[in-house]
Amino acid sequence: MTVYIDLVFLLNGTVNYLLLLAAGRLSGDELRRGRLALGAALGGCYAVALFLPGLGFLAHPLCKAGTAALMLLLGYGHSHRLLRVSLVFLAVSAAFGGGILAITLLGGRGLTLRNGVFCSSLDLRLILLSAALCYTLITLALSRTAQHTPAQLRAVTVTLGERQVELTALVDTGHTLTDPVTGRRVLVAEGTRMAGLFPAGEAPGAEELFHPAEALSARAGSAVGKRLRLLPYRAVGVSCALLLAVRSDGVRVGEEDLGDILVALSPTPVSDGGGYSALIGA
Fold first, then answer.
1. What is the DSSP string of 87-146?
2. For the structural domain made of 150-281, what CATH number should be given?
3. Taking 50 as the threshold, does the pLDDT of residue 249 lie above it?
4. CB of 19 within 8 A of CB of 93?
């Protein structure tokens, strides 16, 4: 079969993008599509390199594993759920590869695996349509296992003075952020969703949340500033960083009253799908 490297790049880049996208969606992680595109492009370049003279050593399993790891770092290196996304990515990739193998065993000749990458003699439009269809089927098949149960999602009420904000939180066993002073749990909420807790004009803006020290300094001496704290945290790919946090007057998670715990203001969404807007440790 004649191999056209432009089609190999486009086909594998598209499939890799859809696999990365499916892994992120099923993990409930934030999707940064530019980063996903870079990871997919790396996978496409790797697929092309396998067909170039003198680069056959790239077909070694260690090279494949290394490429997959780099793709995941490009796509989700910023995420504290990198391990979860990586495991889901491997599962989705295995499911997709199994589907292609099944098609081959049933006599399908359109889409095949060669040197561990996807090749096809089909029309390009049909290739893209097939890849999109496989993405949809895999997402539907695995979404049931990735959905959060009602027991994991709780209604949350945050009180500060006479103001209240209501939202939905995910009870996440992997979320271990605690108040370094009291040792109590910390609610991590999307910062923009918490604007209703603050007096008009005093809520930290979306851009300010990315610079918590400056946001705290700008409110020094004010009544709101006395409520604010800098909260250190660590995550996968982040050795040490800070979140702007506010000392609440009360937080209720479901039927549980957590008292005046800290509420950390996340500068980014905590759920790509929007099913919840806060995280609390179990």
1. HHHHHHHHHHHHHHHHHHHTT--SEEEETTEEEE-S-HHHHHHHHHHHHHHHHHHHHHHH
2. 2.40.70
3. yes
4. yes
Calpha distance 159→251 (Å, rounded):
6
Please provide residue 171's backbone torsions phi and psi, each rounded to the nearest 5 degrees.
Answer: -80, 105
pTM of the model as a whole: 0.52
Nearest-angstrom CA–CA distance, 262 and 178: 9
Q: Which of 51-55, 60-64, 102-106, 243-247 has the lowest mean pLDDT?
A: 102-106
Q: Tens digit of pLDDT for each residue in 22-36?
A: 888 777 677 788 899
Looking at residue 25, its amino acid is: R
Contact between 210 and 185 under an 8 Å Cβ cutoff? The reply is no
* Residue entry with tokens 């991590």: 188
Question: In the prediction, which pLDDT does 55 show?
Answer: 77
Q: How far apart are CA 68 and CA 90, in angstroms?
A: 9
User: Nearest-5° angle of CA 145, CA 166, CA 272?
Assistant: 35
Burial (CB < 10 A; 0-12, 13-18, 19+), residue 247, is middle
Pull the structure tokens for residue 85: 């996304």
Distance (Å, whole) CA 89 – CA 48:
21
Distant-in-sequence, close-in-space partners of 149: CB < 8 Å, separation ≥ 6: none
The answer to whether 20 and 264 have CB atoms below 8 angstroms apart is no
Q: In DSSP terms, which residues pair with 256 in a beta bridge?
A: 253
